[in-house]
Automatic annotation (TrEMBL):
This is 3CxxC-type domain-containing protein. Keywords: Membrane, Metal-binding, Transmembrane, Transmembrane helix, Zinc, Zinc-finger. PANTHER family: RECEPTOR TRANSPORTING PROTEIN (PTHR14402), RECEPTOR-TRANSPORTING PROTEIN 4 (PTHR14402:SF8). GO terms for molecular function: olfactory receptor binding; zinc ion binding. InterPro entries: R-trans_p, ZAR1/RTP1-5-like_Znf-3CxxC. It comes from Takifugu rubripes. GO terms for cellular component: membrane. It is found in: Membrane.
Length: 210
C-alpha cells in the first residue's frame, strides 16, 4: 500500500510539472502577442505587416546566396492555386508550424503541418515569388472568418532557405542538396480537423511537396 501511495505522489508531481510547463509556454506566446500589439501602437505597423516584413527581409537575405545578376522580389497572393500555376510559373509547397488567432473570440491555437505554397518565375533578369499561407478556422466560432497563420521567425527562415533552394533547381537548373531542414514543431494537443482547414478544402493538405 505504501508503494502505491509513493507512485501516486510521483505521478501527481509529474502531472503538476507538465501543467506548469504548458502554462509557461502559453504565457510566452501571449507575451509575444503583446509585443506585437505594442509595436503597432508605436509604429503604426500591424502584426500582419510586421510578419510580412519578416518574410521579405528573410527572403532578401537568402536570395543573396544565388550570387546572380537577377533581381528577385517576394509578394503575398492568396489567390494562387498550388495545383494550377499560370504558364511559365513553377510551384513549391512546404509545411511549417504556426499559431492562429480567431478574430471573433480571440482564441489562439497552435498547429503543425501548416501548408505554405509558392509560385515562382524568372523572366528577363527579374524573378518573382508569390506566397500563399493556408488558413484555419476557429472550431469554437461558427461564423468567424478563417485566421491567417503566424509562423515563428525560425520557421520562416527555414521556409526561405528551402524556397531559394527550389529557385536554384527550377529557375537556374542547378543541382542542390536539400538536406532535412524541418521546421521547429509546436506542442499541439488537438487533432487536425479538415473541416476547419483551408488546405484540406483545397485538396493539398495531405499531399507532399510539389
Amino acid at each position: 500500500m505504501k508503494r502505491n501511495n509513493n507512485c501516486t505522489v510521483i505521478f501527481q508531481a509529474v502531472e503538476t510539472r507538465a501543467k506548469h510547463e504548458r502554462r509557461e509556454k502559453q504565457q510566452k506566446a501571449n507575451l509575444s502577442l503583446s509585443v506585437k500589439e505594442v509595436w503597432k501602437e508605436c509604429t503604426g505597423i500591424s502584426a500582419s505587416g510586421l510578419d510580412r516584413m519578416e518574410w521579405t527581409s528573410n527572403f532578401a537575405h537568402h536570395i543573396k546566396a544565388l550570387e546572380c545578376d537577377d533581381s528577385w522580389n517576394l509578394e503575398f497572393d492568396d489567390k494562387i492555386d498550388p495545383k494550377n500555376p499560370d504558364p511559365g510559373w513553377r510551384t513549391f509547397m512546404w509545411c511549417s508550424s504556426a499559431w492562429f488567432k480567431c478574430s471573433g473570440c480571440q482564441r489562439r491555437w497552435p498547429a503543425d503541418k501548416v501548408k505554405v505554397a509558392f509560385h515562382m518565375r524568372r523572366w528577363k533578369k527579374k524573378g518573382t515569388v508569390k506566397v500563399k499561407r493556408f488558413r484555419q478556422r476557429c472550431k469554437s466560432c461558427s461564423n468567424a472568418p478563417m485566421a491567417m497563420p503566424s509562423i515563428p521567425p525560425k520557421n520562416i527562415d527555414i521556409l526561405m532557405e528551402k524556397l531559394v533552394q527550389h529557385i536554384e533547381v527550377k529557375c537556374y537548373g542547378k543541382a542542390v542538396d536539400f538536406g532535412s531542414g524541418r521546421s521547429a514543431t509546436l506542442e499541439v494537443h488537438d487533432n487536425h480537423e479538415p473541416e476547419h482547414c483551408e488546405a484540406c478544402k483545397a485538396g493539398v493538405c495531405r499531399s507532399g511537396g510539389i
